[in-house]
Design brief:
By secondary structure, the chain is mainly α. It has one domain: Nitrile Hydratase, Chain A. Helix content is about 50%, strand content about 10%. The protein has helices spanning about 1-15, 25-40, 45-60, 60-75, 75-85, 85-90, 125-130, 135, 140-145, 150-155, 190-195, 200-205; strands spanning about 105, 110-115, 165-170, 175-180. The protein is globular, with a radius of gyration of 19 Å. It starts with a helix and ends in an 11-residue tail after the last helix. The relative contact order is 0.16. The structure holds fe (iii) ion. Fe (iii) ion binds next to loops.
Length: about 220
Amino acid sequence: MKSTEETMQHDDHHHHHGDHDNHFSEMQARVKALETVLTQKGLIDPAAIDAIVETYETKIGPRNGARIVAKSWTEPDFADWLKADATAAIASLGYSGRQGEHMRAVFNTPDTHNLIVCTLCSCYPWAVLGLPPVWYKAPPYRARAVIDPRGVLAEFGVVLPETTKIRVWDSTAELRYLVIPERPSGTEGFDAERLADLVTRDAMIGTGLVRLPEAV
Ligand code: FE
C-alpha cells in the first residue's frame, strides 16, 4: 500500500515541476496567503481554523464509516435505510456536517465492486472517513481511476476476478459516496465493534478490501 502511495505521489511530482523550488507548494502558498489576508481583515479566527483542522485530523476518522458498515452488516433494517437514504441513515448516528451533507452508500456484491474518486478535485465524505489520503487528491489517481480502474486497483494490491464489474463513482460537492464492502465469511458471532475493526478506510473508498477475521 505504501509503495502505491509513493508511486502516485512520485508521478504527481513529475506533473508539477515547480514544486521542488519552493518551501510551500503553490496550493499551500495560496491557502496561507488567503488565511493571512482574512485574518488581517478580521474575517476569520486562526484558532477556529486550527480547531476545525484538529477535529478532522484526530477526532473524525474512518472509524465513523467502519461503524456504519458494521451496523449495516448486523442490522438489515439499517442496511435498507442506508440503501434508500444514506444521508438520513448516517445522520441518525450523529455523523453529518462538513462535506458529508448528501451521502450515497454503494454496496459491493459478488459481481460488482465499487470505487470512489473525485475527478474534478478531491470531494470526500469527511464526516464518515475523516481527511482524504494524499493519493486520493493526486492527479494520477483522479485521472486513472476512471480510465483504468482495474489497473489502479491492482496497484493497491486488489485483484478482482475478470467477471467482477467495477463501477466508478465520481464524487461532487453535492454528493459523496461510501462503499459498503461485503461482510467477510467467518465473522458469525462478531459484535459490531469487532466487525468495525475489519473495515479499513480504503475498503470504504473501494481501493482496498476488508481485513480477514483471522487478522484481528
Ligand atoms: Fe472534488
